[in-house]
Amino acid sequence: MSSLSDSLHEQLPSPVYAREQLAERISELGEWFHNLNLGGVPTAPHHFLGDFPSIKWRQIADAIPLDLTGASVLDVGCNGGFYSIEMKKRGARRVLGIDVDDRYLNQARFASEILGFDIELEKRSVYAAEAIPGQFDYVLFMGVFYHLRYPLFALDRLIKKVGGKLIFQTMVRGSQELQSWHENYPFWNTEIFEQRDFPKMFFIEHSYSNDPTNWWIPNRAAVEAMLRSSGLEIESHPEPETWICRPTAVVRDGQYILDRELEGSL
Ligand SMILES: C[S@@+](CC[C@H](N)C(=O)[O-])C[C@H]1O[C@@H](n2cnc3c(N)ncnc32)[C@H](O)[C@@H]1O
After folding, report:
1. Closest ligand 1 atom to the C-alpha of 53?
2. What is the pLDDT of residues 104-162, one digit of tens each?
């Protein structure tokens, strides 16, 4: 058996695998979307977005407290566990990662075991997050919104779980510009719809980026309009695809927006 590399010694609390075993196990777990460094072995070294999601995290990291001691975190669409692990590194007390894909959940399980982080992982859709007891200090809803056929339904439902902040990230296409829009326009004004920066969502009937699960891709104005419309206040926008929000008006007359809409009283 070959000796462990220095980086392996540094990063593997338990269990200890030789580098080759680690590489073999990583490969057995299927193709990874998250590039994690597991004891010196990268899980997705050829990712089409580069060192992903580290490149994105570097832009967001400063917008989230360095010290999350005692915090609870729900990581929706946790994938290989990158963000769940980062939350644990900052001392979060409880991190629950949910995803609908067993491959990704198994990867996240393996990664958290190798890196020695206690992360709860559960197969559960965002649409079923409402049934998770209680609320979380941080809810990460990153890279999932545009994969949903019912994105606002999911957002309005997930909001019930946000006790503190929502970290929201979506693919964005079209205009990145913002302007102030009136609260109302007459029926005969069709010109607003021609403007690139009017809030818009692009509907993908078949596939985008070879992925038939990309359904709705908003422009920046649409993202911000939807977040506000769902009762969230945008606190920061650390990079072009990410918004940090807090719920300020998610309840109207004692009922969540979702419940009012479902009963037809919004
Ligand atoms: C583009 S990846 C984003 C992963 C990670 N959150 C990130 O930002 O890097 C989308 C993830 O959402 C998961 N997903 C798709 N539909 C979902 C749903 N209805 N509920 C929860 N997760 C879902 C996928 O399995 C995948 O892991």
Report:
1. 9
2. 999 999 999 999 999 999 999 999 999 999 999 999 999 999 999 999 999 999 999 99
233 in any annotated domain: yes
- β-partners of residue 244 are 167, 236
Tell me if 92 is assigned to some domain: no
pLDDT (0 to 100) of residue 17: 80
Query: Is residue 55 included in any domain, yes or no?
Result: no
d(CA 32, CA 108): 10
Which residues form ligand 1's pocket by a CB distance below 6 Å? 33, 53, 76-77, 79, 98-101, 104, 125-127, 142-144, 147, 169
To test the ligand 1 pocket, which listed residue (59, 147, 161, 215) has its Cβ within 8 A of the most ligand atoms? 147
Q: Say how far apart CA 39 and CA 154 lie, in whole Å.
A: 36
For the stretch 91-113, pLDDT in tens is 999 999 999 999 999 999 999 99
In a domain, 44, yes or no: no
What is the position in ligand 1's atom list of the atom closest to the CA of 125? 20
If one counts the domains in the chain, the total is 1
pTM value?
Answer: 0.94
Q: Domain of 168? A: 125-263
- Give the burial class of 182: count Cβ atoms within 10 A of its Cβ; 0-12 exposed, 13-18 middle, 19 or more buried: exposed
- Residue from 57, 100, 109 to probe ligand 1 pocket by mutation (most atoms less than 8 Å from CB): 100
Residue 87 has pLDDT above 90, yes or no: yes
CA-CA distances (angstroms) from residue 83 to 61, 88, 92, 265? 10, 9, 12, 37
Can you tell me which atom of ligand 1 is nearest the CA of 79? Answer: 27
